[in-house]
Design a protein that fits this description.
six-stranded antiparallel beta sheet, about 220 residues
């Protein structure tokens, strides 16, 4: 399984949710607080993260902090320009440079919130700086042209640029709805912008494991 080693020099820092660090080497100062106060903490909790965030700051010339995913998957690094934002699924944020801002993102469309697979609440991660995300399974990165539409099972959406429009549409055809196995709705992502897809949504994996567990008599 993948692991992320963040190399820091004196004065550099990286932050993560509480409990997100696996181990570190070197002289590191650890500081746990609640950026944004109570409202900021509650917003992070709604988006799947912890109320508090922990910052790891190097106090020596060289230090390494290691982070690992919570489930089988891939680690994605994204370099964000000033003001650039990524919209990500709940609980996918791993860590970032101290200049990056983490906030809650509410879906504007009622349909996307009700049937979009992740509810109304997502994460907004804004630059400048490098942010790291954990994606279930392998990751596929696509770039959509203006008005190009990608139709997708909602659970396979990991992240997308804020220029991408997220919505839902009903599956057409009675037999497709009843026997197609994809449910009543598909998510739509409309360009322009980049999208990151995940090949093995954790909920799908859990459902497969539960289906094969022995039933008590």
């Amino acid at each position: 399984m993948q692991a992320l080693d963040v190399q820091l020099t004196r004065g550099e820092s990286v932050f993560t949710e509480v409990g997100g660090m696996a181990w570190y080497q070197g002289n590191i100062e650890m500081n746990t607080n609640m950026p944004g106060g109570i409202m900021g903490g509650l917003g992070r909790a709604l988006s799947g993260e912890s109320l508090f965030l922990t910052t790891y700051k190097a106090q020596s010339e060289s230090a390494v902090v290691t982070f690992t995913p919570e489930a089988p998957g891939s680690i994605v690094a994204i370099e964000l320009a000033p003001g650039q934002s990524i919209i990500a699924q709940r609980d996918s944020f791993m860590c970032a440079q101290s200049s990056v801002q983490l906030a809650v993102h509410f879906k504007k469309r009622l349909g996307a919130g009700l049937f979009g697979g992740e509810g109304f609440i997502l994460q907004r991660v804004t630059g400048p700086g490098t942010a790291f995300f954990e994606v279930d399974g392998e990751v596929r990165e696509l770039t959509l042209a203006a008005n190009e539409i990608l139709r997708i099972d909602p659970g396979h959406i990991a992240m997308f640029e804020e220029t991408v429009r997220h919505d839902i549409e009903r599956v057409k055809g009675v037999t497709n709805v009843l026997f197609g196995g994809e449910g009543l709705f598909l998510a739509t992502l409309t360009g322009p912008g980049k999208v990151w897809l995940q090949t093995m949504p954790l909920n799908n994996l859990i459902a497969k494991i539960i289906a094969r567990m022995p039933k008590s008599s």
